[in-house]
Amino acid sequence: MVKKEQIDNIPNKITFLRILITFYIIYGAFAGFSLFHIAVAFCIGAITDLFDGIWARKFKQKTEFGRVFDMVADRFLMISTVIVVITLLFSQEIFSKNHFIQVLMIMSREILTTPFAIIALVRRRNPPHAKFVGKLTTTLQGFAFPTLVLGLFYPFFSFSIYLVWITFVVGIFSAIQYIKDWYLIEKKKKA
């Protein structure tokens, strides 16, 4: 018998807030909100990733649904925001090839792990459990991407290249850990 989970809890509501913030960012980008405004909303969305997990662990409200929902909300926030902002900046001829390469560096984890996540989804397998390095990658992405974008307009944010490189390195480690865990799940299912 499958254990019924209590999914109507505070951590899942915090995760849902991240989904709403993503839609707000998409709307704001096309409604002409400033990039600073969008960057702040994105950082708030990224920070919710920290709070949902802390709350779930502290108050023993961890669920399998919440674990998968959190991962989906993370990717939805990051990928949607990147696509919308890059599209806007390219259309305004502000974004260069060098900036695009930096975005790819920030997105290194997603680029490397997405095929494995899709295979798990198709095979109806749960994705690997989140590790600290994965949460760290999400947090770093939450600051590296807006800092990169704001650096296009405000000289104060010119330090973004350092955040990009740190995010890239941590993202590669996170991807390696994810792929390793994915492989172990697959191996276990085949045994």
Summarize the structure.
By secondary structure, this protein is an all-alpha fold. The protein is 79% helix and 0% strand.
Jot down its keywords.
single chain, 191 residues, mainly alpha, Four Helix Bundle (Hemerythrin (Met), subunit A), 7 helices, 0% strand, globular
Topology:
Blueprint lengths: L9 H22 L3 H24 L5 H28 L5 H10 L1 H15 L9 H20 L8 H31 L1
Helix pairs in contact: 1-2, 1-3, 2-3, 2-6, 3-6, 4-6, 4-7, 5-7, 6-7
Summarize the structure in words.
- With 191 residues, the chain is mainly α.
- It has one domain (10-190): Four Helix Bundle (Hemerythrin (Met), subunit A).
- Helices cover 79% and strands 0% of the residues.
- It has seven helices and no strands.
- The protein has helices at 10-31, 35-58, 64-91, 97-106, 108-122, 132-151, 160-190.
- The mean pLDDT is 89.
CATH fold topology? Four Helix Bundle (Hemerythrin (Met), subunit A)
What is the CATH domain class?
Mainly Alpha
Tell me the fraction of residues in β-strands, as a range. under 5%
In helices, the fraction of residues equals over 70%
Mean pLDDT: 89
Largest sheet: none
Instruction: Give the helix/strand class.
Output: mainly alpha
Q: What would you say the CATH architecture is?
A: Up-down Bundle
> Poorly predicted ranges (pLDDT <50, ≥5 residues)?
none
Query: What letter string, H or E per element, gives the SSE order?
Result: HHHHHHH
Shape, principal axes of CA atoms = globular
Distance between the termini: 23 Å
Total domains:
1
Radius of gyration: 17 Å
Number of helices: 7
Number of strands: 0
